[in-house]
């Protein structure tokens, strides 16, 4: 059964509702994946990228795919379905704290009906989340402009050939042992990892299905705590190919980073988007 969580409708806010002087940039311990070994992204370089906040906590990234919809990971929303009124979507900024950014409120969370909310635990040999994808429907249309635009979805498997160049983005720690979160968005280059090798490597821990794929960066670039739900784009065609799912450890070589495969879920996405 499709999970809908309806919020009280409200009007658009501006980011000035957050007092930057008192807003601690905290990450939620239950939400994993953040870009490591990255460099600062140019202002407005990724206009589709959004931030998901709950109260004063930065939770996850997401992508604008429609004037009314954000695409993200299901695990970013799963633990907060009883407190959805405190969620905010920030658009149009590379900064974690930006008083000039625009904030929208969600109307509904739409989690994949077959999402399995099990976290990675190597010692206990638990599986990763499968069907880790979700839509956020907003209370009103996003106003598109130079720094706020949707991104097109990858619709074929051609985008997932081994070696295809990718860009990953996010705000975060540059490694597992670095606690502070920079205010600026980071970006890093990576490449699609061989799928069979991805399956073999992760088979020690979990089952990789056809809705996932892996990537590696040339200098241990990867995702780490906080980038979950964010976009991974194909460099050549500027298409949204992946949703950040998680890494075993930030910047470690043992396990390639896992992504949800956007093209696999395009039918589900289209089915669950209500066109106005």
Q: If you had to describe this structure to a student in words, what would you say it looks like?
A:
- By secondary structure, the chain is mainly β.
- It contains three helices and 17 strands.
- The strands form two sheets. Strands 1, 2, 3, 5, 6, 7, 8, 9, 10 and 11 form a ten-stranded mixed beta sheet that branches. It has a six-stranded antiparallel beta barrel with strand order 12-13-14-17-16-15.
- A hairpin with a 2-residue loop joins strand 6 (57-66) and strand 7.
- The two termini are 23 Å apart.
- Mean pLDDT is 79; it is low at 1-34 and 175-179.
Topology:
Layout lengths: L2 E4 L6 E2 L11 E2 L11 E2 L8 E6 L2 E10 L2 E4 L2 H4 L8 E5 L10 E3 L1 E6 L22 E5 L26 E6 L15 E7 L2 H8 L9 E5 L14 E4 L4 E8 L10 E5 H11 L4
Parallel strand pairs: 3-6
Antiparallel strand pairs: 1-10, 2-9, 4-13, 5-6, 5-8, 6-7, 7-11, 8-9, 10-11, 12-13, 12-15, 13-14, 14-17, 15-16, 16-17
Organism: Trichogramma kaykai
GO molecular function, one term: serine-type peptidase activity
Keywords: Disulfide bond, Hydrolase, Protease, Serine protease, Signal
């Amino acid at each position: 059964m499709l999970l809908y969580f309806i919020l009280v409708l409200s009007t658009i806010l501006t980011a000035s509702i957050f007092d930057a002087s008192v807003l601690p940039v905290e990450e939620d311990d239950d939400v994993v994946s953040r870009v490591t070994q990255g460099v600062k992204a140019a202002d407005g370089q990724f206009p589709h990228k959004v931030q998901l906040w709950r109260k004063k906590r930065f939770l996850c990234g997401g992508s604008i795919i429609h004037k009314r919809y954000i695409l993200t990971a299901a695990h970013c929303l799963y633990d907060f379905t009883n407190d959805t009124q405190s969620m905010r979507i920030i658009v149009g900024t590379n900064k974690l704290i930006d008083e000039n950014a625009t904030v929208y409120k969600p109307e509904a969370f739409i989690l994949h009906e077959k999402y399995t909310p099990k976290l990675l635990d190597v010692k206990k040999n638990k599986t990763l989340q499968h069907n880790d994808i979700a839509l956020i429907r907003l209370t009103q249309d996003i106003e598109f402009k130079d720094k706020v635009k949707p991104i097109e979805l990858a619709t074929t498997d051609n985008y997932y050939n081994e070696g295809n160049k990718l860009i990953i983005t996010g705000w975060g720690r540059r490694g597992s042992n670095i606690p502070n979160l920079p205010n600026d968005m980071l970006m890093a280059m990576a490449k699609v990892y061989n799928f069979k090798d991805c399956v073999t490597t992760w088979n020690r821990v979990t089952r990789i299905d056809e809705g996932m794929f892996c990537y590696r960066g040339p200098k241990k670039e990867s995702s780490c705590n906080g980038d979950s739900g964010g976009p991974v784009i194909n460099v050549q065609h500027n298409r949204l190919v992946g949703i950040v799912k998680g890494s075993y450890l930030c910047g470690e070589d043992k396990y390639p980073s896992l992504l949800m495969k956007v093209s696999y879920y395009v039918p589900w996405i289209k089915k669950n988007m209500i066109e106005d």
